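Researcher: Can you fold this with adenosine-5'-triphosphate in place?
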Amino acid sequence: MEGPYHIGIDDTDSLTYGCTTYVAANIIEELIKEANFIDYPNLIRLNPNIPWKSRGNGAICLRFYSKKNEYELMDLVLKYVEEYRDKLDIKNQPGIVILKGDVPNIIKEFGKKALNDVITLDETISLLKKINTIYYGIKEGRGLIGALAAIGNTLEEDHTFELIVYRKNYNRKREVDIESVIKFDRETFPFTFNNIDYESGRLLITPHGTDPVLFGVRGEDPEILKISLKIIKFKDADKWVIYRTNQGTDAHFFEFKKIKSLKPYQVAIIKGIVSKKPVFIEGGHVIFSIADDSGEIDVACYEPSGNLRMIVMELMPGDKVIVYGGVRPLNNKITINLEKLEILELINEQYINPICPKCKKSMKSEGKNKGYECKKCKIKVKEKMKITIERKIKEGIYLPPPRSMRHLTKPPQRYGMEKRKWNGIVEEFFGKF
Ligand code: ATP
């Protein structure tokens, strides 16, 4: 056997067709006959703010020993990429990278950067040339970025698993019984997550497009996920694969930044003070501003964020917060698209213009340092008045509902359940129906 091989694959699908994990599932079906896998197939989610992604910015890495050499492996992978990629889609630019040996730190660093920043294809190709890889890009080969980043994300610390069931007929309506999913969710809580959005009644394990995925369940370990195959009632299944992934781990949130340094499409974590009161704007979105010692920026909490908007609306200038999100260019400036809010300190007193003790109306300022006067009652007061504010919200972490969480976002139930390392044991991860 030769290896270990690490094969990264990305950008094989489009909005209407295919799925990179399905290409991987077919490669696995063939490889598993002879290869010795040293890890579950890895499903790596990368920077969720990349505008040229088709859905969840996912890439795949397969890690194994094989009797085949790199060139035979490249032929095999390419055969499946060509068979299943969306050839009609101009955006589709598959990339395949094969690395033999241990993953060098420089690729791990590249993989980390791909989680919270924007990487150019030139930067990727010059790194590919430096290290011991063979690679193949179709068209411009933009998928090489995600393919190499998937190799670099070795999931040594926190990770979760996803069991994906693929279907036979892509054009049929999916038949997955919602009652059985509720049962699965109840029986496996808190060890599986984001099966259902109870607020809207929406099933979250099934995609809605014409791709080959029937459903995917996410959770803490492979065994808990296999329970889905017994409890969930579904039709038209072909095969299943269990992936080890960075989904639900907040892997993209690892670096605080200053407002002034932010660039479009980066992941942002900003510690600052609320500087402008939140307001509702057309479409049901909420906008407020925060400031740090380098500048000020608008933060948008969009309508799909549901009740998170109600929390945001309660913020007041002066509150200390950490804002987690993605940087979006909008009307010639940048905004943070809020993914998670941490309230560190809420102000509970405020200085306002004094109230006239006689008529109970707000007094007017007489100018800077000149005090306040009630024009009607002719009463004068020197200082502003301190009032205590009753706050309806508390310090803590606030997230959008499961239906609008990013794949990478850590759901509430996983706080405290994070894994420090992987045990390295690879059990059954592929099956046919
Ligand atoms: P799916 O979730 O169905 O697999 P997708 O959302 O992963 O689809 P892709 O079709 O893979 O979308 O497109 C994402 C593209 O963005 C790929 O070409 C990938 O190489 C590239 N990409 C990924 N991360 C980054 C990054 N950090 N910087 C620049 N480009 C990136």
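Model: Folded with adenosine-5'-triphosphate in place. Residues 10-11, 13, 19-20, 46-47, 50, 52-58, 93, 114, 117-119, 142-143, 145-146, 149 surround adenosine-5'-triphosphate (CB under 6 Å).
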